[in-house]
Write a structure and sequence with these properties.
Radius of gyration: 33 Å
């Protein structure tokens, strides 16, 4: 008999693993320990020993007869007559590296597969995630769910997939049969862990607390499950029961378990939340490392047990999957009447009413362009880097459609994003009930079309019929058209001026050399320009992320073959074309009129739309009564839905919850706006495309992104099952693409990137622009709004906090905690800093440590006064503070998981630093950051500690600037070239008496480009902002200077007088 078994049998009350190792003489020898542990595991597998909830090993009681048969026979073992114990099937857990993604290089974006096959594929992809509200009972064990045990971990490690292998014969026959029926068409399971045992109506019930999505296959005689993502969703059924049992408010407990970014939780974060929230219900330890081999149905509580659950119709994605089933049956003509046409490559067959683009809030040129696209194009993709005003654009998109009599749905997976948009849209017409939020966890509301119809019929009209000033409305529409024309004409003039400048440069070179032909024309191009163009061209080939429209000003015509005479003729023709365009209206002045009119008209328009005359109420009530009398099942019919939309034209919904609350009517909404689309998958969003005539997808793939729930191997199998060309399906893949990625790759989509960053100080914008956005962002902040501490310059700073010589336990850095708290106390107590403060760190354990230290150091009124918030990177998305402190929590002796955070996803650093308006301070080991073990930390350290490079300060960017400079000097003026103000660089700054400041800009030069390689042209919005800072702005095109330099100088002197 085994010595280990004898020792276990000798202690009926049980012994822990460490005690047994010492008793058998293996406590101090590594090899003996491994041998003893292996023997203990073998005894466990043979059913001779068991480990109870108290962590102690005990010998199993000898049984015989019928009881022995029940123990060995899965059917009898798990039958109701087997008593109060459920036994688990033993499983092995193996971690394997995730397969690397194939390159995008061979991806054919022009291929449009069969749209119906594509819709069926997306439906299958959704059904591959079977998680949802789950409650099971004892007699369904071995039929719909089955307990498993073994040595974890239960969740996959970063960059790895988890394979769980179970002997097929160890699974109950009923469960085997259910799997076989699903094999080949529904290979998805949910893995639940830990398991909560409770009672309902006196009957034991079993609820997984959290759930992983898994794919399964049969390999010989084994069932193999694969979990690709460390991604835990909490079970809503458990939340409801746990709140009742523990005294929690149900919505508060649900909010605790909702991820900060609107997605699922990592295993470590999930376990921490369970321990904090329901500690009294936990039995033993919840670690997922040594799963219990049995479960006592009479003992209520939460156990470190796991089970596999077959899919049910209650999964979170079931509604979207059902919608896709229906949409896949629509004929092509019906699909073509929706925004799906643009998404799947069908020719659109619906007339789009092009509404007037109006300003509900101030807009810059890029935001205005996005609003115009939203009113005109079937599909628009807006890239909104942090602080660039995407919310302003969304509000004006919605306002434009609503003012034109249309309907709008704003959808997101992130409730925080919907909160922000709801607040802004609600301010358009306070006290007018024009909008409906379908689901709001903060106030526990849940409203679908059915409930909204009942409310509409039962409620009294909040106001009398409101009349709209039709004359003022016509003027508003006319102003919108006038502004659009002014912007277009301005762009055309800029294009022509750049071409004229190009010709003037060539003519000047030819005349200076006394040549009339085009020989050696390329020599006139500065070497620096050639090098920059080459670098930008190479970068554009490498980076496909930032797709953008290239205006014709970026593509000068090739005139290298023209003679001097031909160049002069071309110059005359271009000047004639430019002069024929005249002087367009100032779009900023027109925009201010539009905004003023919108503020007066929009509340009246919305009040008139929401007013329900008594006759109309009776008609709707009659339709509603007829429908409900006929059964009233499902969603309301189309006529009722349209009647509701006429009086409640704005809806806000979570993407997952929309199918259950909003009818599937093609083209139901004139516009659907997806916010935070980088965090959303493709398939759950597609049903909302079918409900839309036009779609706007807003996101940023340089911030937080979605976590795919589907492995690539399974994804390819699903494509093959629908006969799709797998090699050409990369842009449609549910396992690889977010909704934003997918929409960005649609061939004919309109695209716009918001480039003006209004939130942060110049050095902060420079850092995120250079490291995450290819130098596309432009600093546009107002210096007067920055609130910096005493003696601190706006930008990024680094406080050196040497790492401890002792290896760090977990992702907690006590040295950084202490340094942050000391600095915080100095700011608030000693310096009386009045700005808002945020503290960000990648890890929840460090968040908890910082919060505890702050509570001990600062009283609550001071914390409230500075709006202090401590959180993870995910928790801060969408928020901002005057001052941000960042704790990287890594050093030479940190756990590998800490460094992996920065190596795996550098984009989170973008989110962390860009939360700061005035100052971002990093508290960390500077020497470690400079060591280069993390490239992103090394770049951050360099930006924070090294002096910024001089970017052309005092240097002329073109020969025309040089001419202007010397001409100004000859007039006795003192121009300062490349003068920096509030992060902007002026061509020339001139200063006159009585504080007069003039910004002089020379536009259209051939070799003067912005950092991202775009041609420098007039920017009226930039000028408007400079004027608000007290500057006068004077701009000259090269052609103006070439024709009348002295006249231009006269105007500058007038500006200075």
């Amino acid at each position: 008999m085994s010595l280990v078994l004898k020792m276990v049998q000798a202690f009926p009350r049980g012994r822990t693993t460490e005690e047994l190792l010492v008793l058998v003489g293996a406590g101090f020898s590594h090899d003996k320990r491994l041998a003893a542990i292996g023997e203990l595991d073998s005894l466990f597998r043979d059913g001779l020993v068991e480990k109870d909830r108290d962590g102690r090993w005990r010998a199993k009681t000898k049984i015989s007869g019928l009881e022995k048969e029940r123990t060995s026979n899965p059917t009898l073992r798990n039958s109701a007559s087997s008593g109060d114990i459920i036994y688990a099937a033993n499983a092995s857990f193996i971690s394997e590296p995730l397969a690397s993604e194939p390159s995008d290089a061979d991806e054919e974006v022009s291929v449009n597969p069969d749209p119906h096959a594509l819709l069926r594929y997306w439906r299958s992809a959704l059904r591959a995630d079977p998680r949802g509200a789950t409650t099971q009972v004892l007699d369904k064990h071995g039929v719909e769910w089955s307990l498993i045990s073994g040595r974890g971990p239960i969740g996959p490690e970063a960059g790895h997939a988890l394979r769980i292998s179970i002997d097929f014969d160890a699974i109950d026959p009923g469960f085997q049969e259910a799997l076989i029926r699903r094999e080949g068409h529904e290979n998805a399971l949910a893995i639940g862990w830990p398991i909560a045992v409770g009672r309902r109506g006196g009957v034991p019930v079993f609820q997984p607390v959290g759930m992983f999505a898994a794919a399964w296959i049969r390999e010989g005689e084994r069932l193999v499950l694969t979990v690709d993502a460390d991604d835990v969703l909490v079970n809503p059924d458990w939340v409801k029961n746990a709140a009742r049992a523990s005294g929690w408010n149900r919505s508060d407990l649900a909010e605790l378990f909702s991820a900060d970014d609107g997605l699922a939780l990592r295993t470590a974060d999930f376990v921490e939340k369970v321990r904090v929230s329901v500690a009294s219900q936990i039995r033993g330890r919840i670690v997922g490392q040594d799963l219990a081999s049995q479960l006592d149905v009479t003992a209520q509580g939460i156990y470190d047990s796991a089970a596999i659950f077959l899919p049910t119709d209650s999964s979170f994605t079931a509604g979207a999957a059902r919608d896709l089933d229906v949409i896949a049956t629509w004929p092509a003509e019906r699909l073509a009447r929706t925004a799906l046409a643009a998404a799947v490559g069908i020719e659109a067959r619906t007339a789009i009413d092009q509404g007037a683009a109006i300003d509900a809030v101030p807009l810059n040129k890029e935001q205005l362009k996005a609003v115009r696209y939203a009113c005109e194009a079937p599909l628009t993709v807006v890239t909104g880097p942090p602080g660039t005003g995407k919310s302003q654009a969304i509000v004006s998109m919605a306002a434009s459609v609503l003012a034109g009599g249309g309907s709008v749905l704003v959808a997101s997976k992130n409730h925080q994003a919907l909160d922000a948009v709801e607040d802004r849209l609600g301010s358009l017409a306070p006290n007018v009930p024009f909008s409906i939020r379908t689901l709001n966890p903060s106030n526990d509301t849940d409203t679908g079309f059915n409930a909204a119809l009942k409310q509409l019929i039962d409620s009294e009209s909040p106001s009398r019929a409101t009349s709209v000033d039709e004359f003022a409305l016509a003027e508003l529409i006319e102003d919108s058209a006038r502004r659009s024309e002014a912007v277009d004409v301005g762009d055309r003039i800029a294009e022509l001026e750049c071409e004229i400048s190009d010709i003037l440069d060539r003519i000047q070179v030819r005349e200076a050399r006394g040549r009339s032909d085009a020989q050696d024309d390329l020599v006139t191009q500065p070497n620096k320009g050639n090098l920059l163009r080459l670098l930008y061209w190479i970068r554009s080939l490498i980076s496909k992320r930032h797709q953008q429209e290239i205006s014709s000003t970026d593509k000068p015509l090739d005139r290298r073959g023209m003679s001097l005479g031909e160049l002069r003729k071309s110059l005359v023709a271009l000047r004639s074309t430019r002069d024929a365009l005249g002087s367009p209206d100032n779009p900023i002045d027109v925009g201010e009129r539009i905004r003023e009119a919108t503020g007066k008209l929009l509340p009246a328009i919305l009040a008139a739309r929401t007013h329900l005359p008594e006759e109309t109420r009776r008609e709707i009530a009659q339709l509603y009564d007829d429908w409900t009398f006929d059964g009233g099942n499902g969603h309301p019919p189309t006529d009722l839905s349209q009647a509701l939309m006429a009086h409640r034209p704005l809806w806000l919904a979570s993407i997952l919850g929309a199918p259950r609350r909003i009818p599937l009517d093609d083209g139901l909404f004139d516009l659907v706006i997806f916010d935070e689309a980088s965090q959303c998958d493709i398939a759950t969003a597609i049903p909302l495309f079918a409900r839309a005539k036009r779609v706007v997808v807003v996101g940023d793939d340089r911030q937080l992104s979605f976590i795919p729930q589907l492995g690539q191997a399974q994804d390819r199998n699903l494509m093959q099952a629908q006969g799709l060309p797998v090699g050409k399906m990369g842009r449609f893949a549910q396992s690889r693409r977010s909704l934003f990625d997918f929409a960005s790759r649609v061939v004919n989509a309109k695209r716009i990137t918001l480039r003006h960053q209004y939130r942060s100080a110049g050095p902060i914008v420079d850092y995120i622009s250079e490291n995450f956005y290819g130098n596309q962002l432009q600093t546009s902040y107002d210096p007067s709004r920055l609130n910096t501490p005493i003696g601190v310059r706006p930008g990024i700073a680094w406080e050196h906090v040497p790492a401890s010589a002792i290896p760090q336990t977990g992702n907690v850095n006590p040295a950084e905690v202490g340094a942050i708290v000391r600095h915080l106390r100095k700011l608030i107590v000693d310096d009386n800093y009045s700005g808002s403060i945020g503290i960000i760190t990648p890890f929840r354990a460090q968040v908890a440590a910082i919060e505890d230290a702050i509570v001990a150091a600062l009283d609550e009124p001071k914390r409230i006064a500075c709006e202090l918030k401590v959180g993870t990177v995910d928790g801060f998305q969408g928020q901002e503070r005057d001052l941000i402190m960042f704790s990287p929590c890594v050093g030479p002796r940190s756990p590998q998981s800490g460094l992996t955070f920065f190596q795996r996803d550098a984009r989170r650093l973008n989110v962390a630093i860009s939360r700061a308006r005035a100052v971002a301070i990093v508290f960390g080991d500077l020497d470690f950051a400079r060591s280069g073990k993390s490239k992103v930390l090394a770049k951050l350290a360099a930006h924070a500690t090294e002096p910024p490079a001089k970017r052309g300060e005092g240097v002329f960017d073109s020969d025309w600037e040089r001419k202007v400079f010397h001409a100004l000097k000859a007039r006795g003026l003192d121009p300062q070239p490349q003068y920096e103000i509030a992060g902007r660089r002026l061509d020339f700054a001139l200063f006159g008496a009585n504080g007069i400041k003039v910004d002089l800009e020379v536009d259209g030069r051939r070799w003067h480009e912005s950092p991202d390689g775009r041609r420098k042209t007039s920017d009226l919005w930039r000028d408007h902002q400079l004027k608000s800072l007290g500057w006068r702005v004077r701009r000259f095109w090269v052609d103006e200077l070439s024709r009348d330099m002295e006249g231009c100088l006269d105007r500058i002197e007038q500006d200075l007088s």
